[in-house]
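This part of the workshop introduces the protein records we will be handling. A record pairs a protein's sequence with a compact description of its fold. As an example, a complete record with its sequence and its structure tokens follows.

_____
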Amino acid sequence: MRWIVRGDVDGFFGLAIDNLVQLLLIDTLCRGVLAFPPDLIYGRILPGAAISILAGNVAYALQARRLAARTGRTDVCALPYGINTVSLFAHVFLVMLPAKVLATAAGAADPVRVAWQAGLFATLCSGLIELACAFFAERVRRATPRAALLSTLAGIALSFISLGFLYRTFARPLVGLTTLAIVMLTYFGRVRFKGRIPGGVLAVSIGTLLCWTTGIAPVGLRPSSSTSFHVPVPVFGDLIAAVGGGHLLPYFSVILAMGLFNVLGSLQNIESAEAAGDPYATTPSLLINGFGSIAAALFGSAFPTTIYIGHPGWKALGARAGYSILNGAFVTAICLTGTLAWIAWAIPIDAGMAIVLWIGMMIVAQAFEATPRLHTPAVVVGLLPGIGAWGALMAKNGLRAAGLGGAAGPFSAALVGEFQKSDTWIHGALAIEQGFLFTAMLLSAAVVGVIERRWHRAAAWCACAAVLSGAGLMHSYQWTFGDTALKLTPAWPFVFGYGIMALLLLTARWTTEDL
């Protein structure tokens, strides 16, 4: 298999734009929410992210080449890899921001440094959890029905990827629909434009041109940051201070939950790759992921990495191993040279949103195509928690836009009553949001058991849901002043609810009869 093929160019544009979005979020949230100085962002956090992303992308590209050599195939696609979006938000709002607020209240000399150290600690723990789970996660993957794994992933793709970019497409239809038409022609229609121009390159080029000619791009508003080379530097002292300080233990519940969340997401992405024809071993894949997050923490990044969603989409584009190498080189270049703001200024996100939208649609399609037709109801059930969690996020974003979610108007349980007056059961949405990956997978697996009339298996999945609810890893949430967070205390109504489900399913062989 060649190092670079034509499909790698399309794959690179899509994955690079996805990674660029995460880096822009880091830049925006660290400056706007955490008030981190540019020296910390561009001199420590982004270089640390570059180390982790480059190492992981190279490792997954080599893994793809080894699989190609072992199987004699030339169509193997590397696992996509980058910064974890969900963990990014969790680390900012649920770990670093509270740590900074408490440090400020306690009169700490440098609250910003305390917040950054909290992020380093959370990232290190995320990598260690991934390493610890790498050696037995394969058993979990093999015991779980494919419908449960793929539908959970499809729920994320449909809501957090597709719907978000769909809104953006119709908010800016001239750019959105034009680039969508190019993507539809080349990817759905399986044709190419004359001159052998890759569809992704054409879509981004025309999208960029339209952004600049229609005023979407910030004409005349050039970035204020200057470009300079930043060498990644180990931050062992800050990590030791974070671990030994003891003040980060209150955030360990969030860190543990996010670590397990990342492991489950990785398993689902590995299953997605196997369904697309690329069977990667679970243990080495998780080890690469875990070491990537540890490298991020050691060199200053407060954000863990993950196996990305979207493998079947990149593979359908014709991407192989080269797109991963290109992405790693691109991210490294913009993180080490301080050109992130200039790239974002020159190529607006709108220019490539059609590619990301298509990736989301392909993941949803795979969930139905790669599972037995009899199991399609289980796929639908698995989609719902992800959509519900996205709805909770939209509700909270709306509240923040209205001025709530800050020190002047913190979130509180009183919002539940206000929402219910309009027949909006926000409590249910917030309960679904916490641990929604577990909820989706377990309910979908239970439905597969019911469809196959394996009552004891269906009951066992519901019993697992009861146990996780009892441990506080599902449905248990608490209010913070600007968000909701997982609360590691038993969610008793759900424990009893899932327990009753398990009992009904376990006794179904005696209490039911054929139609």
The chain has 22 helices and four strands.
